[in-house]
Write a structure and sequence with these properties.
alpha/beta; 7 helices; binds adenosine monophosphate; about 20% helix; elongated; binds magnesium ion; about 400 residues
Amino acid sequence: MLSVEEARERMLIGLAPMPAERLPLDRCLGRVPAALSLQAAIDVPPFDNSAMDGFAVRAVDLPGELRVVGEVAAGAATLLRLEAGTAVRIMTGAPMPPGADTVVPVELATEHADGVVLPATPRGEYVRSAGHDTAAGSRVDLPGAPLSPASIAVLATLGMAAFEVRRRPRVAILSTGDELVAPGGPLRPGQIYDANSFALSAAVTDAGGEPLIQPAVPDDPILIEQRVAAAAAGADLLVVSGGVSVGRHDHVRDAIERLGTLDFWRIAVQPGKPLAFGSVAGRPAIGLPGNPVSALVTFELFVRPMLRALLGLAGDGRMRLPVCATQRIDKDPDRRAYLRVRVVSDRDGGLRAEPAGGQGSAQLRPLADANALLIVPEGVRRTEAGTTYEAILVGAVA
Ligand code: AMP
Ligand code: MG
């Protein structure tokens, strides 16, 4: 059995970033920039402007009563020049009149019919100078992460209507099993609903890929081989679930081996020991275990980093934190366990991990309730309450 690290290393070999495509900015959320660094073409803001509704003045004229000679609103283009002893009423975002160097907020002003009394104010107060957020010609580094609303705002303020992002890797998803039926139809004796097609498709989308769901295929070696070959042909990566273990009806490993190469098929991980990795038609092919919990956890540990590598991103993009276990949970000492837990903050500001429910690999609800996977190393037989382990935060905090 390979360790988690050895397996991951082998799965990442040779994965090069996808080519770039240019998208309108309103379609860039969650997409990965093709280049993480760009040069600002303009100053942001493009001109000196007011940070407040108030009066644009010369600081040397304060304190005192000034004559109000006009008004400038956001979007104003031509401006009168501010003379000594005068003030111009100004709105937030409006350009500073030439000659003015300071803004006094309207809340601090006492207005009369023919003038305004303003307190002493430091020069430059409430003026946002041109380029103070981003200077023209300067380098703008984007986070090595999918574009967030804030990063999209940065690009928009720089005047970019479209942006180059990595094409999303196309991931074919093929569930195997005689027992599977698509949700929506009736269940006959012995049948279950296919969860993995949907679970893995969602996980692919979440990791930045484009899922291509294939109709589930029964446990027939010839059919599986045909469908694996066809699915791989139209994709950048192939994810099969079920049928990778040692049962008499597990045909996925053989299919991968016959169609391409099989690199390995067992990892010292719990859940998810049987996991086949190889290539079909030059595309990476991964056979995940059929239990939805095992399929999703191994997707998280192995397929998600592969998709990120195809997007030019390192690692899994998850936060890791030391957390304190609250309960004893048994595990297989030969494998590293990823336990389904809820990380919550305790009264004195520390973080503790409560089991999200039973840890059986057919217990799906605890995975849905978990916000983290607690990593319990090889060699350990059980977690002990009060012991600190590392957790991978995978979900929102409810
Ligand atoms: P397998 O890996 O094929 O031996 O399947 C292990 C377990 O996962 C069995 O109980 C299967 O019925 C179940 N399983 C396999 N594929 C799916 C799927 N797509 N959706 C839900 N359960 C599945
Ligand atoms: Mg099966």
